[in-house]
Specification:
Keywords: Coiled coil. This is Charged multivesicular body protein 7. By secondary structure, the protein is mainly alpha-helical. Helix content is 66%, strand content 5%. Among the domains are: 228 residues, no CATH class; 97 residues, Orthogonal Bundle (Helix Hairpins). The chain has a 3-stranded antiparallel sheet with strand order 1-3-2. Helix 4 crosses helix 6, helix 9 packs across helix 11 and helix 13 packs across helix 14. The radius of gyration is 56 Å and the shape is elongated.
Length: 489
């Protein structure tokens, strides 16, 4: 390949469809494939049309004019030379791809696009043979036995795919805005906003011809905007496009004037910074004349900037008032429509007199229904009163019986607790007595004689122990009685 390849060729060779393995086929004369291998022919023409549209949008197609078009493909003799590769030469069948795009209206001549009355999407019914014949003539087929020509047709062609993608971005940004005032502007304002909307790189701008094509597509083909003079108005989402009024034109002009004032402020601010730097540099070089001149110009520029800033504030205030007035008109219109709807509904209801009559009749019928219900339920009510008395008596008896049963249960439970407590105390006293008896020293003499009788000394010892134990118990009781009774807390 050529070492000094063009920027266009460098871009094309980075595309997936133009990988090295496919280059021999893409650069060959593939016109015979249309009959012997239609799929291969379609693949090659599709690849060339796609890459040319991308290169056009990136401003890489060489043009005979000074402007860089991004929606318009310029076909010139320079195009083939900029695509030349040392190993494969020029793309011999490039004309087939371009002419195929023209036949399918993927590429539309610029003049035809701008002068057409109807939408490019409108396809009236025509004789199919005429369509086929016209398409064959576009690609150089002169008869049934003629071969397909790959000759390029010079001229400017609108790339419909690029126009559609650009229009979609514009509609999403402007047409779907939340404020009505944002959808009204001059064509100059729209052109200024396009780089931001399209999110292009620095220096990305549509040419004057591109803007004309874009506006034509938005208004004629999509119906998303309307143009009158230098004013363009976009429609709101899910709404009808309304005519441009005098107030719309005034609003658009006011917004354009605000834009120009902001641009002036940016330019004046930059100028002031440059003059300040110039004066500082002159002072450093001890050049009083240049320093004083720069400072004087800076002062005059600051005064100019102040005036422009004041004007901008006034213009923005007017724009805010206009927006408020538009909102007020919308509000009043909405209230008026609401009033009409309410009046219509009230009229359909018959007015106040009919409503009062209906309510009176309704109340009368409700009272009559209540009376009928009372009469119907009267016999049953007497029986229900008797049943209610019996139920109350039986309920009282059951309640009394349950209360007595619960009382007996509580007394039995209390008696059992007292007996258990009494047994516990007796067992404790018996255990205490046994412990004390066990501590007496009576083991040194036999307690029982050889005849099985209790020894006299044993009886005497037991009596003494019992007497002593009784005395100890009395002493314990006396001490408890002598202790003062604890007062309740």
């Amino acid at each position: 390949m050529s070492d000094g390849m063009s920027e266009l060729l460098s871009f094309i060779l980075t595309q997936e469809d133009f990988r090295k393995a496919r280059l021999p086929s893409l650069y060959s004369d593939f016109t015979p494939l249309k009959t012997v291998n239609p799929d291969g022919y379609t693949a090659n023409t599709t690849a060339w049309k796609s890459v040319l549209s991308k290169a056009t949008y990136n401003g890489l197609i060489p043009s005979s004019s000074s402007s860089t078009d991004r929606l318009i493909l310029p076909i010139t003799p320079n195009l083939l030379s900029s695509l030349t590769i040392r190993d494969y030469g020029t793309p011999t069948a490039l004309g087939c791809a371009v002419n195929d795009g023209i036949a399918t209206e993927e590429l539309i001549p610029l003049r035809t696009f701008l002068s057409r009355e109807g939408s490019i999407y409108y396809k009236p019914w025509v004789d199919p043979w005429k369509v086929v014949s016209w398409g064959l003539r576009q690609v150089g087929v002169g008869g049934a036995t003629s071969s397909v020509s790959g000759k390029l047709t010079n001229g400017e062609f609108v790339v419909v795919k690029n126009v559609e993608e650009t229009s979609q971005k514009v509609v999403r940004d402007i047409g779907h805005g939340s404020r009505d005032i944002d959808r009204i502007m001059t064509l100059e304002t729209l052109e200024h906003e396009l780089p931001r909307i399209l999110q292009g790189k620095d220096g990305f701008r549509l040419s004057e011809k591109d803007v004309k094509v874009l506006v034509k597509h938005l208004t004629r083909d999509l119906g998303e905007a309307k143009v009158q003079g230098k004013t363009i108005k976009f429609k709101a989402p899910e709404s009808q496009l309304t005519p441009i009024t005098d107030s719309d034109i005034t609003t658009a002009q006011l917004k354009h004037l605000i834009l120009t004032q902001n641009l002036k402020i940016e330019a004046l601010s930059s100028k002031i910074s440059a003059l300040q730097a110039k004066a500082k540099k002159a002072a450093g070089e001890n050049n009083k004349i240049i320093a004083l001149s720069a400072l004087k110009s800076k002062k005059l520029t600051e005064q100019h900037l102040q005036g422009v800033t004041d004007n901008l504030a006034s213009l923005e205030n007017v724009l805010v008032k206009i927006e408020q007035a538009v909102d007020n008109v919308t509000l009043v219109d909405t209230l008026e429509q609401g009033s009409k709807v309410l009046a219509k509904i009230n009229k359909e209801s018959g007015g106040i007199e009919r409503v009062e009559k209906v309510l009176d009749e309704l109340q009368e019928q409700m009272d009559e229904t209540d009376e009928i219900t009372r009469i119907v339920n009267e016999p049953g009510k007497i029986k229900m009163d008797e049943i209610e008395d019996d139920v109350q008596d039986e309920f009282a008896a059951l309640f009394k019986e349950e209360a007595g049963r619960q009382k007996n249960s509580e007394e039995e439970e209390r008696r059992k607790k007292e007996e258990a407590e009494k047994r516990r105390k007796e067992e404790e006293e018996a255990q205490l007595l046994a412990d004390r008896l066990a501590g007496l020293n009576v083991a040194d003499k036999p307690l029982v004689t050889a005849d099985g009788e209790i020894a006299a000394h044993a009886v005497e010892t037991i009596d003494t122990a019992v007497t002593q134990e009784i005395a100890n118990m009395k002493e314990d009781d006396k001490r408890r009685d002598d202790q003062p009774e604890a007062l309740p807390a």
